[in-house]
Amino acid sequence: xxxxxxxxxxLFIDGESVEPAEGEYRTTIDPATEEPIxxxxxxxxxxxxxxxxxxxxxxxxxxTTDPSExxxxxxxxxxxxxxxxxxxxxxxxxxxxxxxxxxxxxxQGAAATFDFYAGAADKIEGDSIPIGEDGIDFTMEEPYxxxxxxxxxxxxxxxxxxxxxxxxxxxxAVVVKPAPTTxxxxxxxxxxxxxxxxxxxxxxxxxxxxxxxAALSGHDGVDTISFTGSVPTGQAVMESxxxxxxPVTLELGGxxxxxxxxxxxxxxAVTAIQIGIFSNTGQICAAADRAIVxxxxxxxxxxxxxxxxxxxxxxAGMDDADMGPLNHEAHFEEVLDYIETGIEExxxxxxxxxxxxxxxxxxx
Length: 364
Known about the structure:
11 helices, 14 strands
């Protein structure tokens, strides 16, 4: 697949690019320039109905497919991701903002995810349970059916792969709802999967704002939900899913301290924490966003991490700078507010913290 950025992107339902029911489109913005990239379809509850229906129909046949055949297909998808890594990385970099080399690194991980679950597909087994001489008890692992995947904006391709691969390996179909600020990468991944041979209807993508997400999480045709994102939205997803007693898997981020003891190798510690906090412009739920440092080495540690931070180049992801922009304007403003609040509450700003005097959502 070669990258040909369109002016307008539709939904991806039942193996086809289809227009949204209400004909509404939104604009996705390049966070490095604040310039429009393209328009994308805004799905409604009616579109979600179509996607879930297509997924249910495709899943009925897919679950009867020999698990080893599912594994072969997922191997083909992994290879297709590697073959299209340049195009996929470019669309994620333009839509999300991360450096192109980092996007490619994550895509290698996405391909490895498909490889891993390809190997797992024919190893899903039940248990034989001893209950005495006169009987036998056993369990069988069966697919859920339709899996709703609600994807965040920080690593859309990698996390979409992490949702699709295990679902397909176990005999499920998926409906993917990307974040509204990164709508394009999952559409491209769905096309790559289709070109690799994934049957129509097994992967569907419904872009948009809150409406398709709410429609998916409360849909009685959805059998399991995976959501990665904020705590308030995760609470809303769980509340909506409770109406149908739909199983939910939530990954809601966290605060991750790195503890540095006085006998630590400071070069090694600073390097690890530097990677942990600055990767993807700090927009990772596993980021090492606090360092708890022993007082005996505190000053030296601060001096070293400040030097590393000041050595970062900021720029567009396509220029492969050390650090790209934040993903969207509201997030950019929130980060600046946090910095201001920290200073007001007594924190010392050692370096950075200001918006760059240029287009794009850059913070030093």
